[in-house]
Amino acid sequence: MAATTQERPMDLERPIKEIGTDLAARMPRPRLVSTARVEQRMTEMLMKDPALRAALFRFVDVRPACDTPADLIRHLHEFLEEAESKTAQRASTFTGRPLARRPIAAVAGAGVKRMAQQFIVGEDAKDALPEITKLWKHGVETTVDLLGEATVSETEADVYMRRCEETLRALAGAATKPGQVNLSVKVSALTPLLRPTAPERGIEGARPRLEHLLRVAKEVGAHLHVDMESFDTREAITELTLDLLSQPEFADGPSAGIVLQAYLVESPEHLDHLLDWAERTPRTHPFVIRLVKGAYWDHEVVQAAQNGWAPPVFTDRRECDRNFEQLTRRLIDATPTVRVAIASHNLRSISHAAAYADARGVGNADLEFQILRGLGDDTQAAIAATGRQVRAYCPVGDLVAGMAYLVRRLLENTANDSFLAAHASGTDTAELLEAP
Amino acid sequence: MNTFRNEPLLELRRSTVRNEALAALAALDAKLPLEVPMLIGEDVVQGQVFSSVDPSAPATVVANAHAATAAHVGDAITAAERGQKVWSQRPASERAAALSRAAGILRSRRYELAALAVREAGKPWAEADGDVAEAIDFLEYYAQGALALDGGRPLIQMPGERNAMRYVARGITGVIAPWNFPLAIAAGMVSAALATGNAVILKPAEQAPACAKAVVDALHAGGVPLEALSFLPGGDEPGKALVADPRIHTIVFTGSCAAGLNILQTANTFVPGQRHIKKVIAEMGGKNAIIVDSDADLDDVVPGLLKSAFAFAGQKCSAASRALIHKAVADELAERLAGAISTLRVGPAADFGTDVPPVIDIAAQQRIQGYVDSARPLAQGDTRDDGFYVAPTLFHGLPADHKVIQEEIFGPVLSLETVDNVEHACDLVDAGGFALTGGLFSRSPRTIEYVSDRTPVGNLYINREITGAMVGRQPFGGGRLSGTGPKAGGPDYLLQFVEARAVTENTVRHGLVV
Predict the structure, then answer these.
(1) CATH, residue A160
(2) Is the peptide bond between B456 and the residue preceding it cis, with omega within 30 degrees of 0?
(3) Dist CA A303 CA A307 (whole Å)
(4) Which of A78, A192, A198 sits opposite B352 (nearest CB)?
(5) How many angstroms separate the CA atoms of A275 and A278, rounded?
(6) Residue B418: domain span
(7) Lesser CB count within 10 Å: N end or C end of chain A?
(8) Strand pairing partners for A395?
(9) Do residues B124 and B161 share a domain?
């Protein structure tokens, strides 16, 4: 009887509010943090002015391709000109005097590199070590993600694999306790052969490299996490990962995991598939499933619209948030066969997972929270302060790769439905914690 | 009023959809070879048999077609003279409904027709499916367009005078279709003529008669009278006879530049008994270049170039054959492309893993191989010998007058040229004879504006591949030697198939305006 009561989400609302209010109280409002003032002002400005937002993102995007300051300034001016003409055409988007944009954009331009550095912990593993070990010392776990250009050749796939191996070894050399080394890998970087209509090609192409990395991870005692990407590659990534982890040589290591994207309409079926596999495949280290909302929403919606397909993602934010909570509960119910990572900056999603885990008696051994370094630092500190385990997702890479990452994150977090944006703009905590 | 939406593509990234496609292919294979007779008015006519084969497995005969002679052309035009009267007098709404019903029939045969294009034209699945979807699009788009055109255009009115302008069918239309879009282009050219009230005689490509017949069957079943649409498979003979006949009013052609120029010459030669000037609508290929500026995102450029140059083995009028690359990024891009080209899998069109299928026939294979062998490639993909395959080939830094740079190859060959800047690249494009499609990779709004202003091409694509024009979204067609200009799948195309008639009535009687 008790179990049935716990399964009714209604009964969670009270603990969710309590946990959420407590977390919120531990988070400083970004506007109060002096170092973040420029970013804060920029975020506010960008949210109000879509044309300026587009101009600045395009500027951030092109910055690494500009060789000289003159070239940089030329691009900046062109983007701003375009933004101004767009605003003139659509008076409804006009929220400020056009001329006021230039100094703001100039500040933003100068700050772009600094902002990228806020998200990225270093150019390579060696460069990133001081920052990562600092996080470790503060009790924050990490997972490292190697940013890079798209992989279009076998040579480039080899380069990425070697960077992954070097990173694993470098981190292992600096680790102070077992299980500390954690690397997230992208299958699309491990092969140039991913084809949406022929998943077997990508699987064959990436298999030897992912297999090698699993062996290295096992050797150095690291956790290897396979990231999920666009829907086109989902089948190949899932099947390759599960197939390799089914091999006897990996039954006793390394620790490994995959990602479940809650914005996918079919994600409940994906979870069926993952749980079914996990139950059939006993492993020394429980299979880790990282639950995320998903980072390719625009891409999926645009691609589907252009081809006349039903979008594979929820187009209603609340529906997506509800699905996130349903998947959260199913994952927590599946512990300890799987270990759960809740990767979200959404206070409601985090509080819901924590409340449900508490109700189920699931603790840090089976559940962790994940945040993006540079974006979720306050959230990370608040969660850690309540004694729950947190891991920071730490991108490593050069400026070129960093810009693409920065654009993606900025777009996400200045979108109208962004939780962080709502938080930054001072939305009431109770509202943020409402059931979706 | 206009409710046109592009036909959704098959979602081939889902295994269930792929399995259905493979089942359709197996069902088609069990029926091969197909029988493709001539359809002349109400008669099904036999003739000398010729075969279309599977370019991926040339021993497989896909269709046995019956070749039309000049005499058959004469018979078909005689039938079309009856058909022209009947069809042009049908209300535009009735004609549009027939086309729309034909679209529905193609829609109900999506998988089967894609399978047929896979087999007969060697189109990989995604391309074959796109061909079926585009055929449906053309039928629906022109049906709606003809309805809109039927209302005529408003004119200035004066007291005592009533002015009206209406559009009427030009007359019997000869359509000469290519093999590379064996469903879509045949359907587009035929349906534009039919929608506007013209009787049509279709001469399909010799290599893909069965695909074209599927379109004709759908139109007949949709309600186009048999004598308003005849079908004459065959080679040069029926094509030449069709163009030369004085009873033909309009000739619609898609194919090579040489053939197009011949058609123009013949059509413009007056034949005794002829009572009108023939109109030629021709789409004649290109030598398409993509400009890559120094601020381009090479992560996007590499897949964009590969898709533009090598998808369907480069056998699209719109395919890229030149890349004009800013010197600042030329070396890096060349190196990345050289690495990328070896990831392309050359194989049968029916294999979902295929990137580069065979070319259409042995003549094309030998002709393209001549270009491939004419210089030392920078990099080259694999090839195989169990079909009409040509290795995807990348050249770099050939002299400006080299034939690889100058001539249309229509195969999986891409040459890279280093340029000083975008102006230089535009000069090179401007020096060419063709002007069909072009591309630009740049993140500078001013550069995009500059190239848009300067380019002579009919279709310019920015920061994407330069193939895959969609009906109603990218009206397609070029200038210069690439064709006579009208944009297929665009709002102006149907105007080529009609004549305008202005009627002015004096409404003053006995000094009173009545």
Answers:
(1) 3.20.20.220
(2) no
(3) 6
(4) A198
(5) 5
(6) 288-462
(7) N
(8) A145
(9) yes
* Residue B211 to residue B121: CA distance in whole angstroms: 9
- Report the alpha-carbon distance of residue B274 to residue B278 in Å, rounded: 9
Q: Are residues B188 and B115 in the same domain?
A: yes
Active site residue B283: yes
Residue from B343, B452, B471 whose CB has the most chain A CBs within 10 Å, to mutate: B343
* Residue A97 pLDDT > 50: no
pLDDT value at A47 more than 60: yes
Residue B510 lies in a domain: no
Q: B125: which chain A residues are within 8 Å (Cβ-Cβ)?
A: 197
Last residue of a domain, one of A82, A116, A150: A116
C-alpha distances (whole Å) from A410 to each of A121, A222, B188, B431 are 17, 31, 44, 43
Residues A224 and A174 in one domain: yes
Q: Do B227 and B310 share a domain, yes or no?
A: no
pLDDT number for residue A225:
98
Does residue B3 belong to the interface with chain A, where contact is any CB pair within 8 Å? no
Contacts of B12 in chain A (CB under 8 A): 196-197
Please say if the pLDDT value at position A5 is more than 70.
no
B490 shares a domain with B453: no
How far, CA to CA in Å, does A202 sit from each of A157, A345, B298, B308?
12, 32, 21, 21
Helix, strand and coil percent figures for chain B, each rounded to 5: 40, 20, 35
Instruction: Give the count of domains, chain B.
Output: 2
Q: Are residues B458 and B393 both part of a single domain?
A: yes
Q: Are B237 and B74 in contact (CB under 8 A)?
A: no
Report ipTM (2 d.p.).
0.94
Which CATH number do you get for residue B81?
Answer: 3.40.605.10
Residue where the block lists tokens 């009787």:
B199
Provide the 8-state DSSP code for B158.
B
Chain B touched by A150 (CB under 8 Å): yes
Which residue in the set A155, A197, A201 is minimally distant from B13, CB to CB? A197
Pairwise CB contact (< 8 Å): B339 & A71: no
Is B473 inside a domain boundary? Answer: no
**Helix A101-119 vs helix A399-414: crossing angle, to nearest 10:** 110
Closest to B340 (Cβ–Cβ): which among A66, A74, A152? A152
* A102 and A162 inside one domain: no
List, for residues B233-270, the tens digit of each pLDDT value.
Answer: 999 999 999 999 999 999 999 999 999 999 999 999 99
Secondary structure letter of residue A375 according to DSSP: T
Q: How close B310 gets to chain A, by Cα (Å)?
A: 15
A156 neighbourhood in chain B, CB within 8 Å:
336, 339
Task: Give the rounded distance of the alpha carbon of B199 from its chain centre.
Answer: 20
Please give the residue range of the domain that contains residue A61.
30-116
> How long a stretch of residues is chain A?
436
Mutate to test the interface with A, among B294, B333, B443 (most CBs of A within 10 A): B443
Whether chain B has a CB inside 8 Å of the CB on A314: the answer is no
- The total number of structural domains in chain A stands at 2
Same domain, A106 and A214: no
* Dihedral sign (CA B323, B329, B334, B337): negative
In a domain, A237, yes or no: yes
